Amino acid sequence: MHYDPIKKTVGGFFNKSPFLRKVFYSLLDLLLLRTWHVHRELTKWKKDSPKNPKILDAGFGFGQYTYHMKKKFPSACVLGVDVKEDQVSECNQFFRACGLENVLFKVEDLLDFKKPDTFQLCLCVDVMEHIEDDVKVMTNICDALEEGGMLLISTPSDQGGSDVNEDSDTSFIEEHARDGYGMDEIKEKLKKAGFSKVKAHFSYGAPGKISWRLSMKYPMKMLNVSKAFLIILPFYYLITYPVAFILNMMDVRSAHRTGTGLVVKAWK
């Protein structure tokens, strides 16, 4: 499935005003299970975070995590980098319209990113699986962190994270450079990149897999057939989301022996 055109269509609709974009961010926070896991880890990090943290959002996408972090850490200075010029422009306009200061979005390729010893936290959500030379990017991020700084990654695992369960399957999202990471594999790559300590756990366990199909896979498949399905999506979610909400709660509060997602923390 070609995911980017659907994202562009949906994002374009909600980009018509700052109010609609805030609604869009709220919907993403509710629907995306990975967001639940990321928010939980950011809450943990906040307990020991510096007073005025410098944060890098590496591959920020729509900017919803930058928005969340700026609300969670009002005194933070946040830099968001992405290769897509339209998203950089849209996010800069939105954050200026909201009056949120000390936030900047720039067009940057993470393969060439150089800002040594600058940040205390780097967030990297659904990015590494798109990059062939991932160790190079991990190395650049490690160099950009101050001593003791943390990298937080959310990425698909090799346990079916891109909806690939057999050799004959193709990725649900064709833009992926890899179908997912093994836990030991990503730990080894991060240590090779210069990180001194790495912790990881599975997300999208049994309840999360069901929730993902209800809240993301089936709606995306419908939209891939026709954008006209946007009209019926509110009614679809009215029926399915209460179930997905309970499943999300179960997923973030459980320890999973396996799962289709990985949440990884690495310290410099």
- Decide which structural class fits the backbone: alpha/beta
What about the largest sheet?
7 strands, mixed
In round numbers, the mean pLDDT is: 90
Any guess at the CATH architecture? 3-Layer(aba) Sandwich
Q: Helical residue percent?
A: 40-55%
CATH homology group: Vaccinia Virus protein VP39
Question: Which H/E pattern describes the elements?
Answer: HHHEHEHEEHEHEHHE
Order of adjacent strands in the largest pleated sheet:
3-2-1-4-5-7-6
Count of helices?
9
Rg from Cα: 18 Å
Question: Distance between termini?
Answer: 36 Å
Task: Compute the number of structural domains.
Answer: 1
What is the CATH topology? Rossmann fold
Strand content: 15-25%
Reading off the top of the CATH hierarchy, the class is best stated as Alpha Beta
Q: pLDDT below 50 for ≥5 consecutive residues: which ranges? A: 164-172
